[in-house]
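Help!! Second protein's tokens look totally different from the first
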Amino acid sequence: MNFIVISPHFPANSEQFSVSLSNNGITTLGIGDKAYDELTPSLRNALSEYYRVDDMEDYDQMYRAVAYFAFKYGKIDRLESHNEYWLFQDAKLRTDFNIPGYKNDEMDTIKYKSKMKQVFLSHDIPVALGKAFQTAEEGWHLLEQFGYPVIVKPDSGVGASDTYKISDPKDFTDFLTKRTPNVTYFMEEFIEGDIITFDGLTDQAGNVVFYSSLVYQEPALETVHRTGDMYFYETRDIPEDFYELGMKSVAAFDIRERFFHFEFFRTADDKLYALEINCRPPGDLRSI
């Protein structure tokens, strides 16, 4: 089996995937932008071969790297980064080389928050309501619908980056001066509650083979705004209502052979609301 690991060195806790693949007899091939000599000894030992590119954002370089491995080792059986930032590129490479896993036409519901909401709602899973917008006029119109406060963030984004809590008209005006040009944003109602997650791994048939939950001190947005530290812990002591909703969410998105990381809010009146899905391993300090 030939398994290409994209960016096997970053984030650091991803290294163990390559080590474990190698330990299980899988030909483990790495593509990244770090010099080979700068990889840890354990990672160098785990990789059958490493292809360094100058710029991982340059798709032509990434394409040539995969093509090289396919020519030298034969059919590529899997390609994965386990890194949310590269999900679109991973899908494009799988599409171009016909590698099993998410392809280009399957990415919308796991990367765009507006599409995620549609999946949750179509399966009767309670959500924080929201809608995508591009212009200031559209944003002001949505504020009339939702009222204050709301959360505004990129429709396709990672973690709490470029995310704003809008509590009054001045906040929204300030956001309009800071927003990233040519980005579609998503506005959703603000829900007061504790953030919890339903995390795990599915097999090829979509069966959950492992699950757990992270409980956060506070939403990541609050930590970013106060530029402080945060803590979270993992638990497998999951209330029955949360377990049932988590399993229902996995089925709704038909997640197969992947890690999943669903975020929910538990409100003071003990109601659960789905926030979003991330198809990556949980607990990645780079993206929470």
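Here's the second one for comparison:
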Amino acid sequence: MKTPATFYHAGCPVCVEAESQIADALDPDRYEVELVDLGAQKDRIAAAEAAGVKSVPALVINGAPFHINFGAPMSALKS
């Protein structure tokens, strides 16, 4: 069974580049990666916050959030 991984970002150029690198870096045989652009999918903000995401970009692997660079706080995505 693959480990779930969700990459949350805001859709900015830096985040899109990070998305590409994350998708390439995680072994597809080990990880089921979901890419979520919170700038375009605002309905997913609550789930990201529930997973412990405080800022984006962030990667949540198996329920544990890992923050990558400080791009934007979650509050900035809500406006």
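Reply: Different proteins will give different token patterns, so don't panic. Helices lie at 13-25, 45-50, 74-77.
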